[in-house]
Amino acid sequence: MIFLPISLFFTPVWFAHGGEHAISSLTAAERIWLDRNPEKLTLLFNIEFPPLEFASPYGTFTGMGADIIAEVEKKLGVTFLKKPSDDWNEHISSLKNGACAVAPTIVDTSEGEQYAFFTKPYTTVPVVIITTRTIKEDLDLDDLSGRKVAVVSGYATETYLRQIADDRIEIVPVSSVTKGLSLLSFGRVDAFAGNLSMAAYAIEKEGISNLRMAGSTDYSFAFSIGISRKYPLLFSAIQKALDTIPQSEINAIRSKWIHIDTSNWQPKPPRQVHGMPVRNPKLSTSANNGIKCWAMSPMQQKFPSRT
């Protein structure tokens, strides 16, 4: 929360800009900043972070993060300038220098606190260990000592593993989840560690049939909206907007995009992907278990009906 010395700024005000959906708790300073700085409301979205944020076949921002942001826009009476990004490290650089004001789906880390404010998390997804099906036993991180483990460069999983690996694990940074899973499938690495919803989505989409979830970790992604520290009033306004979204509505959005089930999974053809809710991130595994995650496919986003 940003505290300003003029008491007027703490007075809740109602502005007509957002219509009937606008929240009444914005301070005068927050509302004035939003009204005077529409060109600074730049949001960069990752084009390959499904089902949480990615580009539709038409290049538009889509995914769970997109739906959350749409609700925030309604509450604030603004429209973010949405731009695609295919490089997460450049995305972070833009947050640091203020060229990107908003990152819709980001994990709060100690490093990230140096250049971004983070809202309260709006969803949590577990980090798991993926191996080939030739590995029959259940694994934890201790079992990966001396092994090559792929992680997506710049993601929170990389930071997490580097903090706990203590040189016991050979970390192999990759450019995307799909790249990491491909290396694993072809035996170039021994395991992949990452966000279960993304890994399962990629496995389904690419039809990689020789992978399984071999274990869970004690780490989960708690996804927040990140705001550049260049814009403290934008941060406080977005947090207020997020606070006014009912939990039932957030649950419904999550249910639209993510469902995790670890029982008897086999990959389906890429087009057979459907939308349902996240389950408990504390996952159990067995030698016969695989992964199951449905996330609404790009073509299904165009049509409201479900199958």
- What's the shape? elongated
Per CATH, the superfamily of the largest domain is: Periplasmic binding protein-like II
Helix content: 25-40%
The domain count comes to 2
Please, could you describe this protein's structure?
With 307 residues, this protein is of the alpha+beta class. It has two domains: 7-122 and 225-254, D-Maltodextrin-Binding Protein, domain 2 (3-Layer(aba) Sandwich); 124-222 and 258-301, Periplasmic binding protein-like II (D-Maltodextrin-Binding Protein, domain 2). 29% of the residues lie in helices and 24% in strands. The protein has nine helices and 14 strands. The chain has helices spanning 28-36, 64-76, 88-97, 156-165, 177-185, 196-206, 232-243, 247-257, 298-301, and strands spanning 42-46, 48-49, 53-55, 61-62, 81-85, 102-107, 116-118, 123-132, 148-152, 170-174, 191-195, 211-228, 259-261, 292-294. The strands form four sheets. Strands 6, 7, 8, 9, 10, 11 and 12 form a seven-stranded mixed sheet that branches. A three-stranded antiparallel sheet has the order 2-3-4, covered by helices on one side. A hairpin with a 3-residue loop joins strand 2 (48-49) and strand 3. Helix 1 crosses helix 7 and helix 2 (64-76) packs across helix 7. It is elongated and about 60 Å long. The protein starts with 27 loop residues before the first helix and ends in a 6-residue tail after the last helix. The model is unreliable at 1-20 and 261-307 (pLDDT under 50).
